[in-house]
């Protein structure tokens, strides 16, 4: 195999991290003038999910993300290279990636119903007819933290909360949105928040979710954040 092909998973992963950074930001933050972020967050979330899934699949073999490897043959005598992939390659569509993931790794995506809801929302938004009365930010966060986050934690040892565009603070406001939504997330070992009160964000949370949060804070030795 051409050595350049071996770097394909890392190339995809770097792009996926960028898409996740924007998805988190657009799903969590909203200010006057940024109303379009409600729709953009769905597109960025789907893009991040697509790229992370392809990165995981490509780690098994870079060519597994392509629909028809026979079309990659340009009849040259050299090894297959990145330039040929760019010119002739067609990767699997977003909607097929859960099946490709299972076929190549044996893993099923978590929360397939959410995957389908976001897929439909993305298609609708791309065609300029976003469904009415749907909370796209909530849908995006559900997709990120029930599908993307557990997958990238296992595959790449990444925590989704750490990727956002608010460089003035840490992931505090991302965490606040998740606590209010009752969404579980991968908690890094060095977890800390300074801009929010976790206790206040958890006021309306279920008992089971509060128990889960307490267990996570116990694990990272940060129980004081709940007082």
Give the SSE layout.
Layout: H1 8-28, H2 37-60, H3 82-88, H4 97-105, H5 112-126, H6 136-156, H7 172-181, H8 198-201, H9 207-219
Helix pairs in contact: 1-2, 1-6, 2-4, 2-5, 2-6, 5-6
Question: What this model shows, in words?
Answer:
The protein starts with 7 loop residues before the first helix and ends in an 8-residue tail after the last helix. By secondary structure, it is mostly helical. The model has no long low-confidence stretch (mean pLDDT 91). Helix 5 (112-126) crosses helix 6 (136-156). It has 2 domains: 3-165; 167-227, no CATH class. It is 55% helix and 0% strand.
Quickly describe the structure.
This protein has 227 residues and is mainly alpha-helical. It is 55% helix and 0% strand.
| Class computed from helices, strands and strand pairing | mainly alpha
Per the principal axes of the C-alpha atoms, what is the gross shape?
A: globular
Oligomer: single chain
Radius of gyration: 19 Å
Our count of domains comes out at 2
Mean pLDDT across residues = 91
> Could you spell the SSE succession in H and E letters?
HHHHHHHHH
Low-confidence stretches: none
Biggest sheet features: none
Beta content? under 5%
E-strand count? 0
Helix content bin: 40-55%
Distance between the termini: 55 Å
Q: If helices are DSSP runs of H or I spanning 4 or more residues, what is the number of helices? A: 9
What structural keywords apply?
227 residues, 55% helix, mainly alpha
